[in-house]
Inverse folding.
């Protein structure tokens, strides 16, 4: 499976975080659009109120989806993260950095947008992550 090509245009500033400005899927590639994953276990129970713990579980759930699709994390071309409240962002970033060290050891990251929000679909949820993934066609 060919990976996406990260691209950071010279005409704009380098990314200020762990993302690429643009991620180009290979020609002829199919894409899967993964709905927002949340910090619940296989029984659907929220793992913790902690944003850090929920983020780790959310990435674990996303990894399970990738495994089911038969692809590695390097097949992710775009992510969107929603974090409840400004106070949760540092915990999200700490958990993300731990996962990214394993998923993207070369420092080549997918395109990624992140935002803080006032709430998610359940009042105890602290983070939600969706992804666009290149999959075998």
């Amino acid at each position: 499976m060919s990976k996406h090509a990260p691209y950071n245009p010279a005409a704009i500033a380098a990314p200020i975080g762990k993302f690429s400005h643009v991620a180009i899927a290979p020609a002829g590639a199919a894409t899967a659009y993964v709905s927002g994953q949340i910090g619940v276990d296989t029984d659907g129970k929220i793992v913790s109120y902690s944003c850090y713990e929920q983020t780790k579980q959310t990435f674990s759930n996303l990894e399970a989806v990738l495994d089911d699709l038969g692809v590695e994390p390097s097949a992710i071309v775009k992510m969107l993260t929603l974090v409840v409240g400004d106070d949760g962002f540092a915990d999200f970033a700490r958990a993300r950095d731990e996962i990214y060290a394993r998923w993207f050891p070369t420092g080549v990251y997918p395109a990624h947008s992140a935002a803080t929000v006032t709430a998610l679909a359940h009042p105890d949820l602290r983070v939600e992550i969706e992804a666009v993934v290149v999959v075998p066609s």
